[in-house]
Amino acid sequence: MSKTEARLAELGITLPVPTAPVANYVPFVRSGNTVHISGQLSNDGSGRFKGTVGVDVSPEEATEAARVCGINLLAQMKAAAGGDLDNVVRVVKLGAFVQAGPDFYAIPQVVNGCSDLMVEVLGDAGRHARSAVGIYKIPLGFAVEIDAVIEVA
């Protein structure tokens, strides 16, 4: 078991099978040692992380939704890194989108759900630059979507 897989087990996290694209794109693109991972939705299979944050999704639920995006990103990272998360050298950047209600501004705090997970799992290699943006709609009605740029060995 790799070091990162052991850390996931320690945290009680089981990575899902990476999701297939829902439109005309690929899950990730590798160019040299840089991998761009397409946006991952707050989809854990339960449907509970759908809606507008600050309207029908609480900030706490949205933070958990961002963590789910992170888990889905880790599943894609593993696939992009040849099946071994220890080949992830660095999370370079996260781009986060939160379906935010008109009076909801705590978008950075929501996205911490994913950012904190990256550091929990990958240590210093999980520290990253990021954008956190509130938007009108996210595909399929999910509350949060996050994409990533990573460096692999």
From TrEMBL:
CDD domains tied to this protein: YjgF_YER057c_UK114_like_1 (cd02199)
Question: What InterPro entries does the record point to?
Answer: Endoribo_LPSP/chorism_mut-like (IPR013813), RutC-like_sf (IPR035959)
Q: Name one Pfam family in it.
A: YjgF_endoribonc
Q: Record's PANTHER family?
A: ENDORIBONUCLEASE L-PSP_CHORISMATE MUTASE-LIKE DOMAIN-CONTAINING PROTEIN, ENDORIBONUCLEASE-RELATED
Give every Endoribonuclease L-PSP/chorismate mutase-like domain span.
Answer: 5-133
Q: What is the name listed in the Swiss-Prot or TrEMBL entry for this protein?
A: RidA family protein
